Amino acid sequence: MRLSRIGVQFHTIYLLKLVRMNALRKIEQIVTCLTFVILSSVFLVACNGKDKFDASGNFEATEVMVSAQANGEIKILNVREGQELEANSVVGYIDSTQLYLQKQLMMASLSATKVRRPDVYKQIAVVEENLRSAKREEQRVKNLLKGDAATKKQWDDVQAQVRSLEAQLAAQKNSLDINVNSVDAESSVQEIQLAQVQDQLNKCQIVNPVQGTVLAKYAEVSEQTGIGQPLYKIADITELILRAYITETQLSQLRLGQKVEIQVQGEKEPKLYEGVVQWISNKSEFTPKTIQTKDERANLVYAIKIGVKNDGFLKIGMYADVRFK
After folding, report:
1. What is the pLDDT of residues 266-287, one digit of tens each?
2. Helix/strand/coil (H, E, C) string of 195-233?
3. Which strands, in side-by-side order, build the sheet including 224-225?
4. 318: how many CB neighbours lie within 10 A of its CB?
5. DSSP assignment, residue 148?
6. Global pTM?
7. Would you say 66 and 207 are in contact if contact means Cβ atoms under 8 Å apart?
């Protein structure tokens, strides 16, 4: 009897172990199924999250390459990368010593040329006075001739004197006019040459053309530069342009001036911005390799540009998604 009891207890314990093992297997199967369901749901949500965006693209800006407009050594260049510059501000200059000396020489030459310009009124004043005297004498002789107080020879002589002085005055005026025109023409040429030198002097100043932020610097002080050689690159990044691509079926959803939603991946969570459609291409092009659109099967897409106000976070080349409102 005692051995039978022991057998029954052992059999009972064995059955309990089997039940416990089956229960553990069932629990493991349930946990595996739940895990699969959760992962599938996350995957579906992620896929649906991707589909909610209508287009994607990269930020760009209108970049201006500032180049040297004169040849010589860079004396000053107050520019550093990341610096904000005002439009029309002088940020440096190129050595202009030789041009300055050339300008001084041309100014002296111009002054000497102008000194040679004759004073017409002073030079003909004597002849004009003699002519007036001769005409008064002519009138006097004419009056005497009427009263038979003068001879015919006196009348002929005084008329000949008047004609001689008139011819002399005309010749002198013509000669002086030629000299004046010659000097004026020479002065005009020198003034134009002087203006050219002054223009070259002005171009020795390095003037920043637009307001913006310096993106890159290509030259340093004491380096030799030449006309057309890049000095630095600048762009206004207060408003960036998002270039994206859409399919033909999406064209009907967009219009110029339409507001759209821009999403950029932040450090912890996405950041949202409002953009305005500024340009829509009127012709299609092949899908760029670096751009993903909503319908990736489309071979031809249309480029669009969206203006986005920059709060300082956005950078040129940054990737962003677009959702139409």
Report:
1. 878 899 999 999 999 998 887 6
2. HHHHHHHHHCEEEECCCEEEEEECCCCCCEECCCCEEEE
3. 205-208, 89-94, 72-77, 224-225
4. 15
5. T
6. 0.65
7. no
